[in-house]
Amino acid sequence: MKENFLSRYTPRIMPAEVLEQIFVQRQGLASELVERIRESVLTAVKSHTLLIGPRGIGKTHLVSLVYHRICEMADLQEHLLIAWLSEEEWSVTSFLDFLLCIFQALQKDVEALYDLPAEEAEAEGV
Length: 126
Fold this sequence. Notes:
mainly alpha; 5 helices; 49% helix
């Protein structure tokens, strides 16, 4: 029997299947967030959502779950890059720091372009 990794304090490092299995009571909210993101990516309608709550209530779990669901949607992949920043990013003290953190988070996606032929990399990078 394969044991699943459970992280009490860092749900973002857990596999999507495990996050789905242990997610309780907020299925409607998760679906609504996914649909808002989908609508924002595919249409001119833009929205923002702020999740507020005390520590340990499941905000990061919810965001991790939404992240995995969005990453699995093939129709969004060519329109969307997700920069996952650290939960408590203490190095951000200016807008430039913020941009650098985003670029660093996206570095894996950009580095993957180097493995492609020039024409493919160009098309992917647009």
